[in-house]
């Protein structure tokens, strides 16, 4: 079967890898280079066990502070966009314990299959992508917040995640670069099996390997519509001409809602903007972390990728505004100075922004939709976990194609 994958982010490329492996003829279309969207400068964490959705009951107590504080990592700029309002209402409706538990359960299953998929891909193409499997610490600043994390930990542990609470002393034994941050930590959740890698490099390596296997890449092709034939898509319309195929997979990240609407399908995918910096680290032992660290009070994540440290955070509902305010970058630099004062001289920050393709519940949309043509499959809405979930989602798409 000839399958056309729309989008060359990590989700589209993982899909292309899976489909090519199963013997399909594959074409990948993107208006930019692989990984140029949300995948390029993301937090680099393969967070297979730590999948807590943003739509969580704790939002109700945190929301006023998160929205009103000038230094808040969360920002809302109301738009004249019905999707933003509808998405917001659906998000708030999902902020309850039952939905959060159900989402966590589904994400853990998908993440486990994605771990296996990522490992199969690594064995297959041996990508040069700064992969590490050094575990993750999620730091809590107060005993109350640590206690609050216990419930999620117990839920994730009951569902198979290998996690435990650790004291500040144990944190430092696990990650010596945290030694000067001891006074700011009440403790942490430690997940030894978490991994990290440079998602942009994974994207580039997938393109290299797939091109060599005959996958056709049409880059610089802007997708603007579809040619229909009854309840099927005959071709996708691009700035470089029409492309015909037997089936199509929409993996357009935060642009999916717009193109979904062209097909008559409602995809509740809204851009949740975030930022990152990437800095060269001091190679001296104990200066920079090798374990991934999330500072839950600052809502900032740190991941080691080779000789660099990726620092990422913030969540803004501001539409598709891709500007990078200097204050946001300074917040990430300040967090790095505070948590890991010896890690880097912070000379070159490589500021970046990206749009998480977020659904209200935090569950991706994978497979066919009744409202859309039968040969169009969707693989989108992976929110804050697209790198983690990409290979599990790709497997689900391959299975759906056979159904
Ligand atoms: C700050 C930040 C930190 C993050 N940290 C992590 C993390 O640590 N771990 C994790 O698992 N996930 C993380 N994520 C989430 C993850 O990066 C995303 O979920 C993932 O990149 C989504 O991949 P995608 O392929 O769906 O979308 P994208 O990477 O955005 O790809 C979509 C592609 O579609 C193309 N496209 C769009 N419209 C058109 C069009 N009309 N025509 C042609 N092409 C088009 C774009 O050019 C783009 O290449 C983070 C995200 C952000 C923003």
Topology:
Layout: E1 2-6, H1 10-21, E2 25-30, E3 45-46, H2 59-68, E4 74-76, H3 82-93, H4 97-125, E5 136-140, H5 143-158, E6 164-166, H6 168-174, E7 187-191, E8 195-196, H7 199-212, E9 216-219, E10 223-229, E11 232-238, E12 241-244, E13 247-250, H8 256-262, E14 270-280, E15 292-295, E16 300-305, E17 308-317, H9 326-339, E18 352-358, E19 365-367, E20 376-380, H10 386-402
Parallel strand pairs: 1-2, 1-13, 2-9, 4-17, 5-15, 13-20
Antiparallel strand pairs: 3-8, 5-7, 6-7, 10-11, 11-12, 14-17, 14-18, 15-16, 16-17, 19-20
The structure holds flavin-adenine dinucleotide.
Residues 7-12, 30-32, 36-39, 42-45, 47, 222-223, 251-253, 255, 274-276, 301, 312, 354, 356-357, 380, 382-388 line the site of flavin-adenine dinucleotide (FAD).
How would you summarize this macromolecular structure in one to three sentences?
With 403 residues, the chain is of the alpha/beta class. The protein contains ten helices and 20 strands.
Output the keywords.
403 residues, alpha/beta, FAD/NAD(P)-binding domain, nine-stranded mixed beta sheet, six-stranded mixed beta sheet, 34% helix, 26% strand, binds flavin-adenine dinucleotide
